[in-house]
Amino acid sequence: MTAPLTPAFTPQDPINQLAEASVELAMLADRSATDGPWASGAMHLLASRGVLAAFVPADCGGIAADEPALLDILAAIASTCLTTALAVSQWAAAVRIIATATPEIRTTLLPPLARGELFTTVGTSQLTTSRQHLCRPALLAARDGDAWRLDGLCPWVTGADACHTLVTGAATADGGQAFFVVRTDASGILIDPPLELLALSGTRTAVVHFAGVCPAHLIMPPERTLARTGGLATTALALGAARAAIRVVAGEANRRDVLAPVAAGLAAELASLLDRLGRAAREGIEPDDRDVLRGDANALVLRTGQAALTASKGAGFVRGHPAERLVRESLFFLVWSCPQAVSSALLCELAGLG
């Protein structure tokens, strides 16, 4: 986890910068999918182009792009490399929490994160979707004099062994929640080997254990919380992955005219969902409507993955073919930060109860 040299960039339109870097990002995708986007250089590439700075406030060395632009960035990265997009989304979630901290913490952490000198990630699933059936919270925060002590675990942390810091949330004795920045090399932290996943193992997602860990920073007082599930970023990544699958179908359609209306129909559905996502980012969206949008995005990414496989015939069933990878990756959206309403609706549909 040696910090790279500070990349030189001038804040510009991050969408244009990402478009110019897309070929390089695609060339790194295979290594990112196996070794991770930190080792492949994909994260450093995005930092050097100023793309990561888009997520950082302007007073802390960033560009402070608006929410529609940020979602466009995530979708664009996902359409090239979903492994990298997931890593960026977790980095961005951590940055979003750090941005609520005191000015001292913000100015200490955010500028080097914008420049790619340091990398961070987030581990808050224990507060939202993971292990909620257990009586005891997965991660507990207790006061130790004037400091804090963390005990327990984070069950899902992307890039835990590749990042310098982890932003996590823990339950407190009074029933509240507190957020912390923890150095991943802090005493008492144990990072398990990355999980072998059905797809996206290159994200190096792992369980992180805490035994009397002293965090580097308290982000916010326990009575405040940012933990939520099913946000628009997840939907953006699903739509970006669907775009990649539609490209495969369109490529096959260039050789078989019968597939042309299939590719066109899927592309039209994607455009409609991207429009809904953009309006939600600009105007806001109610939780129930946000879940409907996420469910529709999930349905599209699943269907486009299967369409890419079907259009590719037997070749697509061979490991390493883009269609094979896209089908596996599409399944991730069934379990990643998936709201209960979305999961329940899908299960009812699969059981014929809809």
How would you describe what is shown here?
- The chain has 354 residues and is α+β, with helices and mostly antiparallel strands.
- Strand 2 (139-144) and strand 3 (147-157) form a beta hairpin.
- The protein contains twelve helices and eight strands.
- The protein folds into three domains: 14-119, Acyl-CoA dehydrogenase/oxidase, N-terminal domain (Butyryl-Coa Dehydrogenase, subunit A, domain 1), CATH 1.10.540; 122-220, Beta Barrel (Butyryl-CoA Dehydrogenase, subunit A, domain 2), CATH 2.40.110; 232-350, Butyryl-CoA Dehydrogenase, subunit A, domain 3 (Up-down Bundle), CATH 1.20.140.
- Helix 4 runs antiparallel to helix 5, helix 4 (67-80) runs antiparallel to helix 9 and helix 8 runs antiparallel to helix 11 (322-330).
- Strands 1, 2, 3, 4, 5, 6, 7 and 8 form an eight-stranded mixed beta sheet that branches.
Give the arrangement of secondary structure elements.
Elements: H1 14-35, H2 37-40, H3 42-48, H4 67-80, H5 82-98, H6 103-115, E1 120-123, H7 125-128, E2 139-144, E3 147-157, E4 165-172, E5 177-183, E6 189-191, E7 206-213, E8 217-220, H8 232-253, H9 260-283, H10 287-312, H11 322-330, H12 340-350
Helix pairs in contact: 1-4, 4-5, 4-8, 4-9, 5-8, 8-9, 8-10, 8-11, 9-10, 10-11, 10-12
Identify the notable features of this structure and list them briefly.
8 strands; Butyryl-CoA Dehydrogenase, subunit A, domain 3; 354 residues; disordered N terminus; Butyryl-Coa Dehydrogenase, subunit A, domain 1; globular; alpha+beta; 3 domains
